[in-house]
Each structure stands twice: as C-alpha cells, then as structure tokens.
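Example record

One chain of 365 residues, shown exactly as stored in the release files.
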Amino acid sequence: MSLAPSPGDTALDDGGAFRSLHDELRIFFDSRPHADLAPELVDELARLVLAGGKRVRPTFAWWGWRAAGGDADGPLARTTVRALVALELLQGCALVHDDVMDRSPTRRGGPAAHVVFATRHHRNRWAGNGRLYGDSAAILVGDLALAWADDALVTAGLDSTALARAWVPWQAMRTEMMAGQHLDLLAGARREESLEQTLRVAHFKTAAYTTERPLHLGAALAGAPADLVDVLREYGRDIGVAFQLRDDLLGVFGDTSVTGKPVGDDLREGKRTPLMAIAIGLARAAGRGDAARQLRSCLDGHRTADHVLAEVQRLLHDLGAVYAVEEKIDALISSALSVLDRAPMADAAKTTLRRLAILVTARRH
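Predicted structure tokens for this chain:
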C-alpha cells in the first residue's frame, strides 16, 4: 500500500541525499558474499525489497538524523543512508513472515513469497507437500533478510562510536518487532476484545519499529542528546499507532489498488484490531448482542463471504466504530504535533516531521 510519500518526493528528499537509498539497496544486494549459495532466496528477497514500498522506516530514521543535526550535504550523509538499508531489510523479514502467519496470498500487488515458492513446487512437480515447501522457503527468506539487516548496519561504514550508539535502538527494535508479532498471534488465539490489549499490539507490532525506533536510530547515529531522543520517541509512538489504526481501516475498507491486498483481508484473517475491539465494545454498550455476535463470528470464521463482509462493514459504520477510530487517529496526530512544538530541533526537520505525521495517517478510502 502507499500511505507515505516515496523517497523521490522532492519536499522530503532533502536535496537528493535520501533518493540514493534505492541505489544503496541495489549495491548492497550486488555485493553480498555467498549469495550464490541460495539464489532463489536472494531473488525473492530482492523482488520484495527492491520493488518499492513506502520506505516509511528509513524516511523517519533519516529525519531523526536530520533533527539531531545531521547534514544532508555533509560527508556522513551517504554513510547514514547506507545504514538505513538495514531498516528495509528488517521490514522485508517482517512482511514475509507475516504473510506466512496470516496466509496472505498477495504482497505489494504480487504473490506473497510463500505463494511464489509453493507455485514453483507445484509447477515442477517436486516431491512432498507444496504448501509446506512454500512456507519453509519463505521463512528462510525472512531469516535471510533479518541476518542481512544486521550486516547492512554493521558494514555501512559507521565509526565505532556511532555504531555503538545505533546498536541500542537497533537491538530494541528487533526484539520489539518479534514481540509484537507474538502479541498479535496471542490476540487471535485468545479472541482478544480488550481495546487496551489491541492498542498494545499496535504499539509493538507497528509503532515501535515503524516510527519510534527508526527515529531513535537516526537520532542516535547523529549523537542526539537524551531529551531530543525522548521527544522523537514520544512523537513516533503516537504517529506509529495512528499509522496502524489507519492501516486497520484500510484493511476493512481499503481500495485493492492502493493496499495491494484484497478488500476485507483483515476480517477474513480474523485480525483482532482496535477497530474491532471498539466495535464490539460499542455493540455491548448499546445492548446490541446480535451485532456483537456477528462481529465475533466474522473474526472466528475462516471463510467470510462477500455479503458477510459487506454487513460487517455496515455495522462498523452504524455502531460508530469507524468514527471512533478516526477520532483516535486525530487525537494521536494532535498529541504528536504538540510534542514537536516543544522539540529542540531545526525548523526544517520539525516542518517535515509535521508533514510526515499527516501524510502517513491520511485517509485513503
């Protein structure tokens, strides 16, 4: 899906420095030692990472670096961009593994990695179970992406002091991302209906490694003081959760041409999102037991027909859940922008972070 500006957006490209991210990604792939040992894994990872995407994580990391005094025209700009390659590889790991876990058939408008490998198995009439082969190969693609993400950061050319500073948020980000995925699994298994718990999933599964920690990483690379790191992280937490809430709405009401995934996919996958938690809570408060049962039934179903999806979409509007999520998004944006107002940073970075807050949470349905 395309919630954020591409790196080529001149207002965010900062004089052309950030535009080289794609070039650095290509250089990284071309320079990997031992890549010929597993060409199918490498090719699939390259297809996913080099195809594009939102580049949200390196964008926020870049502006965390700029907010802490990083010079887009200075000698460290290219080294910083090279280090941000790690974030796109970490995202590649998350996407591939997430698609296996959710049984998602598509990603970025094409087949998901596990589908690519399963299809190849079937086409070549190989031995064994094609689905298991597809899942297993995709997991290895994700594992390779995670290993190479570490490589990208360590081999970017950072001096030892900068690398040591960056390693603190990097370690936290990797663990938080995995914890968020597990919390998401638990939410489904436990039939989670608590808004507090679904927001916790949103924080760790998305906000922490999408906005909060990338900002922290960029700021750490530039040697930011603790008070600036705290401000950037607070801003990042709010915007990251708002980003996920917008994604939840897109998962139910979005345009396939924008999201790259079928409309209603989150409902078909039984995602226990804040949107659904709010809807069930509103149904209970209104004495609408029938509506609450219908929402739960949709989440528990493995095959949700189009007419059922349409009815659930109507319920989400009628119960006021969509309006409530929009209000929550607006409140989070306002909170994040108020944090920026007191931030000790250059006006250019502050202006761009304000604009990013609006862009990544914008309505797309």
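Notes: Residues 1-11 have pLDDT under 50 and may be disordered.
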